[in-house]
Amino acid sequence: MAEGKPEPFDRLVVVGLGLIGSSIARAARRYGLAREIVAVDGDAAVRARVQDLGIADHVTGDAAEGAAGGDLVVLCVPVGAIGPVALAMLPHLKPGAIVSDVGSVKASIVAAIRPHLPEGVALVPGHPVAGTEYSGPDAGFSTLFSGRWCILTPPEGTEEAAIERVRALWEGMGAIVETMSPEHHDLVLAITSHVPHLIAYNIVGTAADLETVTQSEVIKFSAGGFRDFTRIASSDPTMWRDIFLNNRDAVLEMLGRFNEDLAALAKAVRWGDGEALHAMFTRTRAIRRSIVALGQETAAPDFGRPRTAEDGTGPAAKP
Amino acid sequence: MAEGKPEPFDRLVVVGLGLIGSSIARAARRYGLAREIVAVDGDAAVRARVQDLGIADHVTGDAAEGAAGGDLVVLCVPVGAIGPVALAMLPHLKPGAIVSDVGSVKASIVAAIRPHLPEGVALVPGHPVAGTEYSGPDAGFSTLFSGRWCILTPPEGTEEAAIERVRALWEGMGAIVETMSPEHHDLVLAITSHVPHLIAYNIVGTAADLETVTQSEVIKFSAGGFRDFTRIASSDPTMWRDIFLNNRDAVLEMLGRFNEDLAALAKAVRWGDGEALHAMFTRTRAIRRSIVALGQETAAPDFGRPRTAEDGTGPAAKP
Q1: Which of B308, B316, B182, B198 is nearest to B254 (CA)?
Q2: What pLDDT, on a 0 to 100 scale, did the predictor assign at position A195?
Q3: Chain B residue closest to A143 (CA)?
């Protein structure tokens, strides 16, 4: 844990000013975590928007220019681009610089970058488990990481000092930091994030292809559960393509287990085994309670739209 | 469409004072849709709570007493109990009375009740597509149905006047009413609600059984997508057991299609077919936009907790 206010970075370089990158730029400035913030983005429209928003001190589309003099470079591009973008910037980094990222997959990123690290440059990959279903520099905000976990996956042998500086940045932005190996990270995220996204994308696709039920009916009557899946399934397609391409083994492993369990559940439905169904549906409630208790979710009922305050009769929030 | 204010029911009987039943009682009183509201519930604790809340004029645990003199009886008990409870009440209904319900399955309910209808009593089954993951008389509130769809599935030959009176009740509570056959209803809900719940329950169960990832890790890092599934998977177990037992064929049909699509998606992951993945993930975004456009969901980003208003920098709500 960092004590007191951490020493700010002299030059924080944020590469890719989407939801996460622009949130880091905003939070770093707001909480005084960097003396200078450099924004690097390959998209001219994004650069222009970042200029207008005024969330960085310097904006460039040139990787070498962006890398020069940076003491922390955080790569916030889709997982598939992190390796190539890192390789373009590494030769321009000064000794003592730290390279980090925010990708949702970690082992493949370590494998892509580590062999090419210049002498004296440290690699401390990170993954803030935070976000919304929106993308782009307008979607970010400075409190996105507040109370959220950020997982750091430094490869073995990384200098403690580098890890501590990256930890201090995330804690300064309000995150709770945990470290684990890249491989374990990828397993954990496969079940808590990647497979849930895959099955959400999948059921929305299944619904779109029906002949017996019209698309308009699916949309109208979506409040019964389907709606929540469409929110997840509206996340950025490029980001998610890259995640699945880069975490194949863990995703297929978890998906295999999901399919086995679903086959058992389908059998209970087919044979009318009410006892098995009830037991299964009861068991899952406890996990929900733990998530609410841990502050990762509110207990407020979700209606898919803001509550009207006009109704004084209910509901009481229950655990 | 009803024009102007509908004639209130003389005696509205709500059977089962859970989330939906207690919301109907609250809304009927608030919007002046019934002169007298009778609450029937087999659970003494619920009856006591309904008395305390003061949301009904008369509270009883006796089906015959509850049915006597009612001109509309709405059964708000779990799907598996609707048939038996209806059969207990039917002999005590007066000619001209209407029996309705709010079950999430319709064909099996029509089959259970219709053969036993006394002369002059009409059956107009209904299903408000609204709710939260909470249960019980405290969870209800009078605006639950506002702007939500309610599907009526009157069997062929039902008198128009009875259908119109039930329609007027729902419209009076703010719902948008649509009618369809019980069989078609069950297909539509299988894909928009029943299968989504089944796979949400399933993945939460899969996550609970892992040895390689601890339950505490699943809970901590649930913000990446899993959290939304746990909300759905915390709905009432008895209600959902009954739904699956009573809509078996439609659920298994939709689940079969879901599984075929998931196999194709898994194959794309295994073979690294990025183009197929990207195309699939792009396609599902359009459906989300339609749901938001139809007012069944807000476009506001979902963080799993209320936004802090303190941050002026973002985000702009985008479609």
Answers
A1: B198
A2: 96
A3: B311
